[in-house]
Design brief:
Helix content is 39%, strand content 20%. The chain is of the alpha/beta class and 218 residues long.
Length: 218
């Protein structure tokens, strides 16, 4: 029988990496997982086949993204196509002082994000609209935009560039095969970095073997 990573496993690993993982984090993640499971019969937030492995397949990649970004308190972060809240809700649980905005155009996902935000007392901003229209309704800009493979890199950057600060960055996590996107996307005025999981991350979870984090700066 396949062993699925548990919150206890994730807690030990995060602490070994010098990341904060308190009782607060543990209980918040537990409540978050329970809420996703309770919605499983109503909405396909994530694949039902992924529910038993939600820690490894959804929370862990979000934690990897968080680890590479190392956000500062009060950073303004936009989660593009947040869906079930990955990675934005994971970021907010790990670092409650972050200024997180979750945006999704799908009504059911938006409603889930509203419920998660209220029931978990997260104080995120939730927006129901297409991200490409966001610049018409906001005055401030974001320090970081994040996304879990919502679209190709060129499209993600076209959505992000105008709503990021001058020193802002886009981070996305994708499969290794998506490195071809980088070749197609490379432009002189942008700095692109591919961040592969270190050996200890791969030892902890083979699921990360085909994952890469892509960072794009202006």
């Amino acid at each position: 029988m396949k062993h699925h990573l548990t919150l206890n496993d994730l807690e030990k690993f995060c602490l070994s990496k010098g990341m904060n993982f308190s009782i607060y984090n543990f209980h918040k993640f537990g409540s978050y997982i329970n809420l996703i499971n309770s919605w499983a019969s109503r909405s396909n937030l994530i694949s039902r086949h992924d529910l038993p492995g939600i820690v490894e397949r959804h929370i862990l990649p979000s934690v990897l993204l968080f680890y590479h970004i190392k956000p500062k308190d009060q950073d303004r972060i936009l989660d593009i196509g947040s869906g079930a809240g990955f990675p934005g809700i994971v970021f907010k649980i790990l670092q409650p002082n972050l200024d997180i905005t979750l945006i999704d155009s799908a009504k059911k996902k938006y409603l889930f994000l509203l419920e998660a935000n209220e029931s978990l007392s997260l104080n995120c901003k939730i927006i129901h609209r297409r991200v490409e229209s966001l610049k018409t309704v906001i005055d401030e800009k974001y320090d970081v935009a994040v996304s879990r493979a919502v679209n190709d890199l060129r499209t993600l950057w076209s959505w992000s560039a105008d709503i990021l600060q001058d020193d802002g960055s886009l981070y996305t996590i994708k499969g290794e095969t998506d490195e071809q996107e980088i070749t197609r996307f490379v432009e002189k005025e942008k700095k692109i970095e591919v961040l592969k999981p270190a050996t200890d991350w791969l030892t902890f979870s083979k699921y990360l073997e085909k994952k890469i984090v892509i960072k794009v700066e202006k």
